[in-house]
Amino acid sequence: MNKAETMTATPSNAAAEAPAAAAITLIEAITQALAYEMRNDDTVLVLGEDVGVNGGVFRATAGLQQQFGPERVLDTPLDETTIAGLTVGLASQGMKPVAEAQFDGFMYPMVDHIVCHAARFRYRTRGRLTCPMVLRVPWGGGIRAPEHHSEANEAIFTNVPGLRVVMPSSPARAYGLLLAAIREPDPVIFFEPKRIYRQYKEVVPDDGEALPLDVCYVLRDGSDVTLVTWGAQVKETLEAADKLAGEGISAEVIDVATLRPLDFATIAESVSRTGRCVIVHEAPKTAGFGAEIAARLAEESMYDLLAPVERVTGYDTHIPLFRLEMKYLPGVDRIVAAAKRALANG
Which parts of the sequence belong to the Transketolase-like pyrimidine-binding domain (predicted)? Predict the structure, then answer.
């Protein structure tokens, strides 16, 4: 297990005694983290479409307006451009806004404010000002939603200097990484894989302990092949590792978690031992973030590789609706086949 799993950062005003831990879903972990930080930091507020009275389209903010009031949990107009501009403005004036883009495909009207302003505050002012904001984004496919509701567009934002791009893959990592994101002085795009919002539960103590950003998490040790993934695909990748283990193949599984900045050192160290790498992601293959990892391996780990890097991805098309949706997403069999190709080519 990666040492980062045990690293924490607790705020000075944390509650003296945390309540008993409960098994909760990923979406409940998001709510729990938001409530904790709002209780302990008056500058944290939540805004977005339907986040207040209705508790959000996925219920991530359920009960927060009743607990903290409409001045700290703001229902906004159905206007993503305004939400992004208001969020940047609040962050520039000493608040820590956590905005919600209702779906990943709704982010595009926000790009001007995110790219041209939020991501440049530190650079533009030579470090005198930062932009401590979080944009929460329900991300990815697999829930039979219509167009603009099932996109995996993380690679667009990993190309922007000044942004952090984070994607949890479990309830515990969602809680710890969201706390860290809110406490981060620079803007964070926080992608939440909606396919696994309620897929399983995990014990998550509400203790205010953040997980470190900017590190990969080694979820499973292995010696034959390195499987690198993030978000909802972590589940299928771990299942593929189990299936490979049944055939005598030892697969190491790495959850990237923070895509920008990338903890390439953890990936490189693993590949130096296994000699093979399979990268798994939901986004289309061309110019997906997996291409950046593959390029870094070619540049910095060429002599460690015993076989070409394999990529298991979505296809270069919009996600199909609805019958072919799960065929589009990388599955266990495709991951296993890629690992076997890597082993056969070595």
Answer: 24-199
